[in-house]
Amino acid sequence: MTLPTLGLVGLGKIARDQHIPAIAATGLFELAAVVSPDCATADGIMGGVPSFRSQAEMLAALPGLDAVALCTPPAVRHGLTVEALRAGCHVLIEKPPAATLSELHDLAAEAESARCTLFTAWHSQFNPAVEETRRRLADATIRSVAITWKEDVRRWHPGQDWIFAAGGFGVFDPGINALSILTDILPAPVFVRAADLHVPANRDTPIAATLEMGAAPGSRIGRITADFDFLQQGEQTWSIVIETAAGRLDLTHGGTRLLVDGVPVLAEPDTEYQRIYRHFHRLVTDGASDVDGRPLSLVADACMVGRWHRTDSFDW
Amino acid sequence: MTLPTLGLVGLGKIARDQHIPAIAATGLFELAAVVSPDCATADGIMGGVPSFRSQAEMLAALPGLDAVALCTPPAVRHGLTVEALRAGCHVLIEKPPAATLSELHDLAAEAESARCTLFTAWHSQFNPAVEETRRRLADATIRSVAITWKEDVRRWHPGQDWIFAAGGFGVFDPGINALSILTDILPAPVFVRAADLHVPANRDTPIAATLEMGAAPGSRIGRITADFDFLQQGEQTWSIVIETAAGRLDLTHGGTRLLVDGVPVLAEPDTEYQRIYRHFHRLVTDGASDVDGRPLSLVADACMVGRWHRTDSFDW
C-alpha cells in the first residue's frame, strides 16, 4: 500500500526537532517535499527530499500531493492553509493554528467546503499523562487548578523578535500550551474572568501574564489560575497542580509526568509528535477534521478583558 | 391566542428607550415582569408590571415564564443567560452578548441542550438600509471599506465607569455596532490584520482605536479600515463608506441611511428594535436560535494582535 504523501512547510526548530523525526518514526506518511525560503538549508537538512522556496511552487510541482504540515510562524498560516486546502491537500497546523479567531473559523469552513481534513495540532494535548489526568478528573470535585508556566525566552526562542511583535503572542506562545491542556483535562468549559498582562516598553506582546479563570455554575470546579513568565532563570517550570476532593494531581514537565498525592503515576518519554501524526493519519483515513479553538479563545479573551501594564524594556 | 410572556432584566437606558416601547409596539410578547436591583425605579417606570430585585426571584415567582430579554452590562450576562435557559426560558441578549468568546460558545451549547431559543441581538444589523447594502454588495467588487465611528462618551454614557473598567469594551462598545454591520453586509469573512488601541492612563479599555482588516484571498474585497473615537466633539459620526467597481455606497447615521453615489436611497425611521422583537418571536415560533459571534471575535482579535498605547487620563 502506498503511503499518503506529505509536504512539510517551514523548516524551523519545531520542524527539525519534532516533525521530521516523528514522520520517520511513525511511517504513516511519505515525506515528499519540504518548503523553506532558504533552499540551501532545506537541501542541507533533507538530502534526497525535493525542496521548494514556497508552498505554491511545491503544489504546482506535485499536483497529487495528499497532505501538508504547516510549521511556519502563525501570521502566515491562514493564507497557506487556504492555499493548501484549495489544492485538495489535508492540512496539519502547528499551534497556534492561526493569528486570530476569525481566521480559524474561516479555516474550518474552508476545510469543510474542500472536503479535506483540517487538524489543529495542540501538541501538549498528546501526552499519556494528560489523557490519564482527563480520565481522573471526569467525575471529580475540583477545588482548584493552578497553572505555573515559567521559562526563559532567551533560551527557547533566542533572537526570535516575531514573538514580541504584534500578533506574536509573547508569553502566550508557551502559555497557550498550558491552556490547551487545561481545556482538554477539565470536564466543563473554562472562562477568563480577569487578567493582568505585562508588556515590555519596547515590545507589543506580554512577557508575563496572570489569569483568573472559572467554570460555569454547577460544574464542581473552583478557582483556576495561570501564572505565565518568560523571564524565568534557573529551573524551568511547566506544571499544573489540581486539588480535588479525592486528592492532589501534579501534572508536570509540560504535561508529560503525572503525580497523584506526590506519587509518580506516569512518566513517559516525549512521544507527543508521534501521537500527533498517528491522529492526523486516522483523521485523513476517516475523512474527519479536528479543529479545537478553545485555547486560542482563552488567549483572545484574556487580551480583551485583561489590564495591560508597561514593564521594563526587553532586549536579547 | 395568548402571547408568550417575557421578563425584562435590567432597566437601564437601552431598556427604557428601546425595549419597552418596541415590546409595546410589536405586541408579540406580554411584558410579564421587570428585574432591577432598585425596585423603586422599576415600580416608577412600569406601573402595573410586577418587578423583582433579581432574575432568580422572578423565575421562582413566575415558573411558566416563556422568555427573558437581558439588558444588563455584559459582565453578568453569561450567568444570567445560563440561569434563564436552565429555567426553560428563551433568551434575547443585548449586544455584546457576553464578556468573552468562551462564554458565548458556552451559551450556544447551553441553549442547544435546553432546547431553547438564544438570540444575540446586534441591533445595528436590523436596519432596512443595512439589509439593502448587503443586497447590493452580494456580487460587487469592493475596492475599500472605511468605517468612521466617532461619538462623545460623555454624552452617550455619562458617568458609566464600567465601560472603561477591564471587560467594559471602551470605544469598542459603540465600535462593535459598526463591526456587526460590517460582518453582516460583506459577502466574505473579515479578518483583523493590525490594530492600534489607545487606553487612558487611568483606565483599562481603549478610548480610541484604529483597525486594519482584510478578507480572504479571492474574495474581491480590498482594504477595510475602522476608525473609532470616543472623544468626538460636535457632530457625531457613525458611517461606513464602501467604494465598489460600480460606485460608492454611504451607509450613514449608524446604518439607518443609505446613499448611492451621493443620492439618498433609504432613510427610514429608527425601528430596529421592533424588527428585533419580530425576529425573536419568529425564532421562538420556529424553535431556532440566532447566535452571531463574528463582531465579538473581531474585537477579541483586535485586542490580541493590536498594539496598546497609553494616552491622557480620562475623567468625566
Can you describe what's shown?
Chains A, B: GO terms for molecular function: nucleotide binding. 2 copies of one chain form a homodimer. The first copy, chain A, is α/β, with parallel strands linked by helices and 316 residues long. Chain A has 2 domains: 5-121, NAD(P)-binding Rossmann-like Domain (Rossmann fold, 3-Layer(aba) Sandwich); 127-267 and 300-311, Dihydrodipicolinate Reductase, domain 2 (2-Layer Sandwich). Chain A has 10 helices and 15 strands. Chain A has helices at 13-26, 39-46, 55-61, 77-86, 101-114, 128-137, 153-156, 172-185, 272-286, 294-305, and strands at residues 5-9, 30-35, 51-52, 67-70, 90-94, 118-121, 142-150, 190-200, 208-215, 221-229, 237-244, 247-252, 257-260, 263-267, 307-311. In chain A, the strands form 2 sheets. In chain A, strands 14-13-12-11-7-10-9-8-15 form a 9-stranded mixed beta sheet. In chain A, a hairpin with a 7-residue loop joins strand 8 and strand 9 (208-215). In chain A, helix 8 crosses helix 10. Chain A is globular and about 55 Å long.
